Amino acid sequence: MKKICDLIEKVNLDIDILGLTDDSRKVKDGYLFVATKGFNEDHYLYIDDAIKRGAAFVVSDREISKKDFPHFIVEKNINDFYIECCRRFYDIDLKEFKFLGITGTDGKTTTASIIQQLLGWAYIGTNGVLVNNQEFVTDNTTPVVEELYRCLHLIKENGCKNVVMEVSSEALLHKRLKGFNFEAVGFTNITEDHLNVHKTLENYRNCKFSLVDYLKDEGKCFINGDCENCQLLKCKNLVSYGFDTNNDYVISNVKEMSNFVKFTIEYKNGSYEIESPLFGNYNVYNVTLAFLICLSTGIKAEELIKRIKELKPIKGRREYLDFGQDFTLILDYAHTYNGIKNLVESCKNYENIIVVTGAAGGREKEKRRLIGKFLLENTNMTIFTMDDPRFESVDEIIDDMLQDTNKTNFLRIVDRKKAIEKAFLLADKNTVVLVIGKGRDNYMAIEDKKVAYSDYGVIKEILQGSNK
């Protein structure tokens, strides 16, 4: 709780503020409501709703029509003002923290989670907040402004001020990171995604590139040098990694053993021999990026190599689940064309590949047919089902995924639980079942609601009693 006069210097009122938000739906009695202005949403339109819900004070960038509400001021630079209010409410001085930032289309969660394990720093990202072995749920990859500062307050209260963050393109677009300074940043890759927001690949790429604007002068920027889009980034202290021999750090000699992957990272003065329990070439990239960023913080290579051997699986990212079933089962968040392609191609050693997947509603439709075509040409069976349909018809989404193929090795089962059950019935000991698209999400986005749902929970419920 704060006094309004502590949050807004020019207001000389002794009003208790119990919380703050720019989302009128989250307003409760005693809240400060700040009517921020986004690209597609003007929260000024929801001031009356905020007042009805109990707002104690309102700030907007223009006069309000509700003349009988006295606790109100106009602030022209409303978005910057809101960030400052959040800092004051949660007692956050960004200069007290150290930040590492990871962005890219695929691999953000895995790479950031690896860094969290290797360094023991706090984590903010798709899998929520992790600090001192405690986990907390968040709504976005990079939380919205108020939630972001609430997360930092939580981390600070747990005695930690070192944070590795996943940084989304939308967070950069909406400038949620104003005032942040990163010790180092890393780019996993950039392929087409979120074009419903950014409209063009160029816009999306440039938005991602803006992460370097938040990098400290002496901070290093690590890019996947094998990615054509990443190659377009120009900044100082740029370090590239990848399989191509033109990179600063060159990956070579990848060998998949029974329980781990061995590979070499070569550089001009020597090489590092790495053993990782995370399989797939895409995880070789992720581990390499995490290793290089951790090296930049001053940890010795020998210690990092030792810690990489002991990495734990990343929840919802190529997560092997064993409930006593006689087939291999992998839970994964893969939802982009590139992410799905990498995952499926890494499972080619199995005789039978069965995939359960869908496509999110309200997102770019162009990728649906590409994903559907690839899956039917590279798996034995794909079961198309619901995946955050929002306001779209699940059947119409599936139709989009099937429009470029005449293949018949698929089933259409809208109910996701029934789709997963069917996949398990079709599987035998030579099968890998990939349940993909939602990872460890705990909801299904239907219309404008988040309905409680978990792939992990459904899988556990189906298999724990059956021991198929």
Write a brief caption for the model.
The protein is of the alpha/beta class. The protein is built from 15 helices and 25 strands. Helix 3 packs parallel to helix 5, helix 9 (281-296) runs antiparallel to helix 10 (301-309) and helix 11 runs parallel beside helix 12.
Describe the structure.
There is one protein chain. The protein starts with a strand and ends with a helix. The radius of gyration is 24 Å and the shape is globular. 30% of the residues lie in helices and 25% in strands. Helix 4 crosses helix 9 and helix 9 runs antiparallel to helix 10. It has three domains: 2-89, MurE/MurF, N-terminal domain (Udp-n-acetylmuramoylalanyl-d-glutamate--2,6- Diaminopimelate Ligase, Chain: A, domain 1, 3-Layer(aba) Sandwich); 94-309, UDP-N-acetylmuramoyl-L-alanine:D-glutamate ligase, CATH 3.40.1190.10; 319-464, Mur ligase, C-terminal domain (Protein-Tyrosine Phosphatase, Chain A, Alpha-Beta Complex). The protein is built from 15 helices and 25 strands. The mean pLDDT is 94. An eleven-stranded mixed beta sheet has the order 10-9-8-11-7-12-13-14-15-16-17. Strands 18-19-23-20-21-22 form a six-stranded mixed beta sheet, sandwiched between helices. Strands 3-4-5-6 form a four-stranded parallel beta sheet. Strand 15 (249-256) and strand 16 form a beta hairpin. The longest helix has 16 residues, at 281-296. With 468 residues, it is of the alpha/beta class.
